[in-house]
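hey m, so remember when u said the tokens were messed up on ur end? i reran from scratch. heres the input so u can diff it against urs
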Amino acid sequence: MAPAEQDALAAREQLFHERVRECIICALLFASLYILCHFIITHFKKHTDFTAVHDDEDAAVNRIALGLCTFTLAVALGAVLLLPFSIISNEVLLSFPQNYYIQWLNGSLIHGLWNLVFLFSNLSLVFLMPFAYFFTESEGFAGSKKGIMARVYETSVVLLLLTLLVLGMVWVASAIVGNDAASRQSLYDLWEYYLPYLYSCISLFGVLLLLLCTPFGLSTMFTVTGKLLVKPRLLEDLDEQLSCTRLEEAAVSRRI
């Protein structure tokens, strides 16, 4: 084998090992986030009677919806922690550039995590969360055999109709605003244009909602904290308290 072919083979083998390592790290990170989110949701969710019945259809639907919501929360938590993780990994690499055991914190791993978070965010936003909501509300089509698959069919049909409705409304709005052939044809470019645009719009709405709800949350937090904590008595007048106590004692003695 020629030296050039050996170098190419070694480069492909190294690239393969890097991809496998990145897949393992991503799987471990997501599994940790999924377990954490599962404990968070099961801690705060309301108790229902059918969750205790493992063979019931409603319990199975509830478990499937719980899994989808846990997956979505794990993706959202990963999206929130991705920027701090990128900053910390960059600082660690700059501090220890020659350390062999932290070389896996490279740009390829961060780029892969960004791509996975973007993919799963769109998937959760467009399909998983609407499917979980419609799945819990579904009962199967009239006249069909009852069961989980009947609910899955109904949920899929409702989600498909909702998707067609949203796409139709977007197409009509794009045609009205643009009023040219390019604006109508741009709807076919769904993955490259509309999904990132939808993701950006919903992210902007979430930030605005956070800015709106943060003052109310802080005021509520300080109110609850003020009720739970004991106020300090450093500035109280002890002489006034003693005089009030003597007056109360005298009033009780007169009554006796």
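this time it looks ok to me. The chain has seven helices and no strands. if urs says something different then somethings off w ur setup not the seq
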